[in-house]
Target: Arylesterase
Amino acid sequence: MIFKAVLLHFAVILGAAFPLNSSASAEPLQLVGFGDSLMAGYQLPPDDALPNRLQAALVAKGYDVAIANAGVSGDTTSAGLARVDWSVPDGTAGVILELGANDALRGIAPEETERNLEAIISRLKERNVPVLLVGMLSPPNMGEDYAKRFNGIYPRLAEKYGLAFYPFVLDGVAAQAGLQLEDGMHPNAKGVGVMVERMLPVTESFIATIGGKRK
Model:
């Protein structure tokens, strides 16, 4: 009896010193922001890139989440397809997919853009990695026919694959001089803030569907 009492005493002490707290030891929900210069944070400090700012906003709201920046400036959907397998590591809980702007700027056939995006989505689905698809719109100078073919890509793929969907990555930022760099295409730090604010509700819903919770 004395021996059992001693064991119980030490068990209580050890329990107090090392509490079983699964939330404290749990890893953050690992997401990947996969895209082009709009994701990479072209000409911005790393902390102002979209993945970093979006992560900070989510953490401020109580989510235990980390968003890796897998954006590459200049990437087309073809380039993204070529690197998706190694840019999205095992253990990734979800991907925020933003590609296509450079396809439109180069006048690549929208049908090719759609095939590439569909292949990226399919590869991620084969690995059971959920996708939040972030859309793009054709530049006005590409003409009405091109815009009609290009702009339909993203809602069509989102519906086909049942994806979380944010229609336009530059919503509220495009054509707003005070929110863009001098090139008139990329967001400045203030512009990224607008992007984050508008993307946040969709991102929160996406996180909820893949098991992310607030602390």
Summary: Residues 1-25 have pLDDT under 50 and may be disordered. The radius of gyration is 21 Å. The longest helix spans residues 189-209. The first strand starts at residue 29 and ends at 35.
